[in-house]
Design the sequence.
């Protein structure tokens, strides 16, 4: 059981008490309306911290440094993030530059460099333009209303910011969980997505904090796909500063469960918004697999379906080619009984007992034209449940990605 | 050591002695120039047979029937194949129809139904139009020159046939290995590709025959990718009828090794042609990973790279965005040392020791414009070697697949 969880209007990464943020345009990205490319996020008191990171064999030194600085015995105060340059595949200079970025941010904010984390996203193989960092980081203003600036500062090919906050009350104390993320391309996370920063003013025991984040990431960021590719910079952070003044949350009670549910809601929103805003995407695809032998089976199968190019292109073309859904679920190699499979598109059943049934094709074509297409596959062999989110694959994705650096 | 292996001019699946084939247009596919949609392949004497099949959890009943009819203790005489309809996700009717197809083919050819295999490819979720089968199969003419007809009869969205034969002499006896394949979409095989049929007049012991085919498939069909999706109908068959009159090949001698090498050459050609002719493709991408800790590592990493949408779109756009190659190799999660990686595009080195080096961008852009683009990644941590083949991802793939059934 959880306590009632409410949405915070205009919620963002600074909605939780004690967090401030800001951003600046330094010219790392090409200029544009409202564009920012360096962001600072700071807590006015020390935070426990949890993180999940890319599983790619090639890792940005930025990720390496941040991973070193989090853990159950560590506290952090701030995060500096930039977009436009991933600081990846740049040799030994990458770690030197990542450290200097945290030095600059720490000096600006009056905190220790060891308490400052760093994240980068953008083109691989190009060094961070440190001259810009040295010029602009010292001038970034952080405020309690700066969450949106921070959200803009981490975008690359995203068309819009991803922000949310939710809150719940424990014994009269309001606890808030907020977050921002960015995505768009190279999105098929494994243990984390491109970049997401979540904050809370709850007072959270660090081991429980990491468990809570890992559990939420498994069901959210790890279940989205834009193009099957996995970034070298994937990072999800959760900072808890205790500024709400509430009890210590360490699991095993209603307040802890409510916190975990709030984190899950924040992560789910941020993950789905990444899928919805995938490069070239015109619509969100939500895939639900139910009645599998296990939840893990359902998670794997739903993600295979959300990742399939043939499913993505069929949805784009409003083509009720359900054989591709069959193929994609089967590709996951989970145990199933083909003769028991039912398939629904936006609640219209099109397959029963593994075979096409008579349905109104035009109504399904209409459903596939919605901004959100829900594909539901009932395997009817157990109680396992899982969801995944993707987007359609369009010519725009190809055009965009065939001329990105040149 | 192997004996000299020669290419057979205009080689095809009937180049090996004792094999005949033919095809007919029955109207399962939409009509078009040179289109055929049912093919028969027959040996004038019993064959030992080996096969590899789709690992998808959803399997066509056609595959199920063929899998039942091959094995070390079985002999076969014929194969009937159709394109335009996959006979998948059609309930219990699928197995009934697959059996009847083999009954019709066996009657036409004067062989036993139990010695007749079947393969189908095309749209999923639609029943085989058996009326057409009953009308057209009894009239198919098979000849020793019918290999090309058979190759045409199995095509779906392919733009051209894939055919080859090679031969080698053992003590004055010429042994031939021939084959045909089809591919185009839903191509990311696991233990087999869409459809490939290979034949030989060598006299091959059945266990060695299966070992030979499985080894060749691992290095060829399992290393190609068009779109990451795995068909429910993937089948590779190798039929050996002994018509050359040579010694029994069972491994462990030069003749057996020459046979294995000939099978590998046939499979490599047929696999590469599938990648080259991928849906919407304008060019072949060959990825070589060398200096890995093991051959298996190199195979996995090369395939991840050949499968990456971001690599495919970069090659399409002639964009030397080598960070994507880095990302894709790292996504395979094999052990590597980033600071030792060298990358070459058509032999032009662009990365040394994990970092960009000064190269003539225009010459690399030119190289990326070739019909065949060779990406070579030297990991420099061991002696492992592997290759994979893919094609570029173009707007045409999206346009084509967003309106396939409707």
Sequence:
């Amino acid at each position: 059981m959880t306590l009632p969880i409410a949405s915070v209007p205009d919620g963002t990464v600074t909605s939780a008490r004690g967090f401030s943020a800001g951003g600046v345009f330094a010219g790392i990205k090409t200029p544009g309306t409202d564009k920012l490319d360096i962001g600072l996020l700071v807590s006015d008191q020390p935070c426990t911290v949890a993180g999940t990171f890319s599983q790619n064999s090639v890792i940005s030194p930025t990720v390496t440094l941040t991973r070193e600085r989090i853990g159950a015995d560590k506290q952090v105060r701030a995060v500096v993030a930039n977009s436009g340059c991933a600081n990846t595949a740049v040799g030994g200079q990458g770690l030197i530059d990542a450290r200097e970025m945290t030095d600059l941010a720490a000096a600006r904010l009056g905190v220790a460099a060891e308490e400052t984390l760093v994240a980068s996203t953008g083109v691989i193989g190009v060094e961070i333009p440190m001259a810009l960092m040295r010029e602009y980081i010292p001038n970034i203003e952080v405020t309690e209303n700066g969450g949106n600036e921070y959200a803009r500062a981490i975008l690359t090919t995203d068309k819009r910011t991803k922000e949310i906050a939710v809150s719940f009350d424990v014994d009269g104390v309001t606890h808030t969980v907020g977050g921002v993320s960015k995505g768009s391309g190279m999105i098929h996370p494994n243990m984390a997505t491109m970049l997401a920063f979540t904050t809370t003013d709850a007072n959270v025991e660090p081991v429980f904090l990491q468990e809570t984040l890992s559990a939420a990431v498994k069901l959210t960021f790890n279940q989205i796909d834009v193009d099957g590719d996995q970034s070298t910079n994937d990072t999800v952070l959760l900072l808890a500063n205790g500024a709400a003044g509430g009890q210590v949350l360490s699991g095993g009670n209603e307040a802890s469960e409510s916190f975990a549910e709030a984190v899950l809601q924040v992560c789910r929103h941020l993950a789905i918004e990444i899928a919805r805003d995938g490069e070239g995407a015109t619509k969100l695809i939500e895939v639900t697999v139910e009645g599998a032998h296990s939840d893990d089976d359902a998670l794997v199968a739903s993600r295979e379906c959300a990742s399939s190019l043939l499913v993505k292109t069929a949805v784009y073309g409003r083509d009720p080619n359900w054989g591709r859904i069959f193929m994609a679920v089967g590709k996951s190699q989970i145990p199933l009984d083909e003769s028991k499979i039912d398939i629904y598109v936006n609640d219209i059943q099109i397959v029963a007992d593994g075979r096409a049934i008579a349905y109104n094709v035009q109504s399904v074509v209409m459903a596939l034209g919605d901004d959100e297409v829900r594909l539901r596959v009932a395997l009817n062999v157990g109680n396992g449940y899982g969801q995944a989110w993707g987007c359609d694959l369009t010519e725009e994705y190809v055009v965009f990605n065939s001329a990105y650096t040149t």
